[in-house]
Design brief:
Helices cover 51% and strands 14% of the residues. It contains 16 helices and ten strands. It has helices spanning 11-22, 34-43, 65-69, 84-91, 116-123, 138-141, 156-166, 179-201, 206-226, 231-234, 237-248, 253-262, 267-274, 279-294, 299-309, 314-322, and strands at residues 3-7, 26-30, 45-46, 50-54, 60-62, 74-77, 100-103, 128-133, 147-153, 171-176.
C-alpha cells in the first residue's frame, strides 16, 4: 500500500483517487476550494464534475497543502494546466528530496512554452517528476470502463513503480521514456479537438472528422518530432489514441466547446457554457509560438487560433484549409 496525495479534486483527480483507493492505496485529496472539499466530505461524490462515482468513507479530504503533501509516497498533480505553476509553487516547501510527483493534466504554458513537467521541475527541483496520459475520460475511468494509458518518466524504475501503482484489471498502464513526446501529444490534441468540435457545430460529417484527425496527427507529429519527441509516441496512445477519443467523444470539453463555437458562440461564451477548463484554448497560442520557433507548418491549429482569437468565421477557416496549395500527403515516400 502507498500513501498518495491527490492535488486537485476535479473530475480527473476524483476518478484517479477512486481508482487508486480501489487498488489498495491510502488517498488524501486536496483542493484549494473549501466548498469543494466540504461537498466531498459530506457526499463522498463530486456532484458537479463526476456525478455517480462514489468515493469511499475512509478517504481524506483537505484544503491543507502541508497535510496533503508531507510524507506521501506519491503526489498526483491533477489541477488544470493554467494553475500548474501556482500549485507547484505552493507545494514546494513541503516536498521532500526525491519525492515522486506524477502530473496528469495536459497543456503548454503560453508565456514560457514549457510543458507541465518542465514547470514542475523548475518550481520543485527536488522532486522526481513523471507524467500520466492517454485516451482516458474521467467519466469512464470512474465507472471502471477498460482504459489504457502511458506513464512517462526519465528513469525506468520510476515508471515501473507508477505502473504498478495505477494498473488494475480495468486500467492498463504502459511505460515510456519519451516524457516530452507524451506531453506534446496530450496538449496539442486538445487544439485539434476544438477544430473537430467546430466542424460538428457547422454540421459537417464523418468525412470531415476523419480528415481533421488524420491531418491533425500529422501536424502534431511534425511539431513534436521537431522539438525532440519520438515519432513512435505520436502513433501511440498519447498521440493518435488520445486524439481520436478527444475528437469523437461528448465527454471531451474541447470538442463540446468547439461545437458551440461552430454554432456561433464566442470562445468566452463557449468556455462559460462548458463550465470546465477548456485546455485547448490555453494551448492554442503556445502551439503557434512553438511552430514559429521550430519552423513547422500547422495549418489546422493556425486556423483554430484565428477563430478563437482573431474573430475569423469558422466556415471561412474550413474553406481556407480546403483551398490551401496542393500538397503531397507524405514527403518521405519517393515517387
Amino acid at each position: 500500500m502507498a500513501a498518495i496525495g491527490m492535488i486537485g479534486a476535479g473530475s480527473w483527480g476524483t476518478a484517479l483517487a477512486a481508482l487508486l483507493h480501489k487498488n489498495g492505496h491510502e488517498v488524501t485529496m486536496w483542493s484549494a476550494l473549501a466548498d469543494e472539499i466540504a461537498m466531498l466530505e459530506a457526499e463522498h461524490e463530486h456532484k458537479d464534475k463526476l456525478p455517480g462515482v462514489k468515493l469511499p468513507e475512509d478517504m481524506t479530504f483537505t484544503t491543507d497543502m502541508e497535510r496533503a503533501v508531507k510524507g506521501q509516497d506519491v503526489l498526483t498533480l491533477a489541477v488544470p494546466s493554467p494553475y500548474t505553476r501556482e500549485t507547484a509553487r505552493r507545494m514546494r516547501q513541503y516536498v521532500a528530496k526525491g519525492q515522486r510527483i506524477v502530473d496528469v493534466a495536459k497543456g503548454i504554458e503560453e508565456k514560457t512554452l514549457m510543458t507541465l513537467s518542465q514547470i514542475i521541475e523548475e518550481e520543485i527541483p527536488q522532486a522526481q517528476v513523471a507524467v500520466l496520459s492517454g485516451p482516458s475520460h474521467a467519466e469512464e475511468v470512474g465507472k471502471g470502463i477498460p482504459t489504457t494509458i502511458v506513464v512517462g518518466a526519465k528513469e525506468k524504475k520510476t515508471a515501473e513503480y507508477l505502473q504498478n501503482l495505477f494498473m488494475n484489471e480495468a486500467f492498463r498502464v504502459y511505460i515510456s521514456p519519451d516524457v516530452l513526446g507524451i506531453e506534446l501529444g496530450a496538449a496539442l490534441k486538445n487544439v485539434v479537438a476544438l477544430a473537430a468540435g467546430i466542424a460538428d457545430g457547422l454540421g459537417y460529417g464523418d468525412n470531415t472528422k476523419a480528415a481533421l484527425i488524420t491531418r491533425g496527427i500529422a501536424e502534431i507529429s511534425r511539431l513534436g518530432t521537431a522539438m525532440g519527441g519520438r515519432a513512435e509516441t505520436f502513433s501511440g496512445l498519447t498521440g493518435i489514441g488520445d486524439l481520436i477519443v478527444t475528437c469523437a467523444s461528448m465527454h471531451s470539453r474541447n470538442r463540446r466547446a468547439g461545437i458551440l463555437i461552430g454554432k456561433g458562440y464566442t470562445m468566452e461564451e463557449a468556455m462559460k457554457e462548458v463550465k470546465m477548463v477548456v485546455e485547448g484554448v490555453y494551448s492554442a497560442k503556445a502551439a503557434m509560438a512553438l511552430a514559429q520557433k521550430y519552423n513547422v507548418q500547422i495549418p489546422i491549429i493556425e486556423q483554430v487560433n484565428a477563430v478563437l482569437f482573431e474573430g475569423k468565421a469558422a466556415d471561412e477557416a474550413v474553406k481556407e484549409l480546403m483551398l490551401r496549395d496542393k500538397k503531397l500527403e507524405n514527403l518521405d515516400i519517393p515517387w
